[in-house]
Amino acid sequence: MRAGAAVRRARAWLSRLVEPCTLDVWRYVADVGPVDAVCALREGRAPTRVTALAGARVADDQSLADLRRAERCGARLVVPEDDEWPALSLHCLELAVLREPVAPLPQRDRTLQLVPPLALWVRGRPRLDHLVQRSVALVGSRASTGYGEHVATDLGYGLGERGWTTVSGGAFGIDAASHRGALAAGVPTVVVLACGVDRVYPVAHSALFARVLQDGLLVSEWPPGCAPLRHRFLVRNRLIAGLTQGTVVIEAAARSGAQATANRAADLGRQVMAVPGPVTSAMSVGCHELLRDATKRVALVATAAQVVETVGAIGSDLAAPPERPQTPRDDLSDIARRVLDACPVRTGVPPERLAAVAGCDVLDVLRVLPALELAELVEWTGSGWRVTHAATGGAAR
């Protein structure tokens, strides 16, 4: 089902009228509907508080031009009335709005508000709701290290192999590495922008965005042509957190946008994860602080399997335990280990001597020696028993 032309144009007009996260305007549109809200605003019948938030933009109608501009670059406007709208993913933002007081209060800082988008401009072929249904946000520092970029690429690739979509902001550093990892796995990825979907920001990522558009999506709350203003990146963070099942912070300084995204994810009840780094690295301070914060219940993750286990279905997305190197000693009994440890390296000794060193009975020594010999851990020298060269790993003791 697709929304009617009047509804689509109304939401296109609203997406330029006010900046995202304007709570009172969102509530007014939710109460009366987008078409009636636009008519009331343009005719001066809207509540004074809502009209004041709209300001001088009320007289500027670029909705048709925005829709045409989007069509020229292969984009579309996805609205809550469409089937493609990611209603399930964004439901957490609607619940967050319910926690806000209804009584008139001074408008809070929009960068901290958790308000659903009025509409989303989407560029790319896949359906937005399908891509974000099983998705994880990978975020981190722009000034990333080689370690961070390696981990981000590996996580993006591993998540793609497991059928999960990587969502990030398309910035330098960790964001770009995450997108490239997903693309290397041959799966789509989603870039959430702080500007119009017809603009490439940063400009150096024009080739990356072109590759993303082959199978994935560029998404923005701002109409085509809008510039990447600084505050828009902070507003955009809650959309990255809300669209996904969880947020992984790979590298983050003590104060960073990645930490802000993690905080928005925690506020929305989403799972927050962090990748630990060297304790000497300034780019991992933010990750370590998140892991130390018991109130957020941040999960430590190191692999894509651990990320999927954390946010996936209970019982069906379990990560395999890390492989441990197996040695012949692993299956030995306590007596056998003690006898093996009592055996010298160079000269053989009799069972009586082994029993004295191992602290056991001679009969116990005689009972375990054949099994140790079969495992090629000990050998008979003609005058006594000693450990084999293989059992010591080639090191004398």
Automatic annotation (TrEMBL):
It holds the Pfam family DNA_processg_A. It comes from the Bacteria. GO terms for biological process: DNA-mediated transformation. Residues 115-299 form the Smf/DprA SLOG domain. PANTHER family: PROTEIN SMF. NCBIfam families: dprA. Belongs to the DprA/Smf family. This is DNA-protecting protein DprA. The gene is dprA.
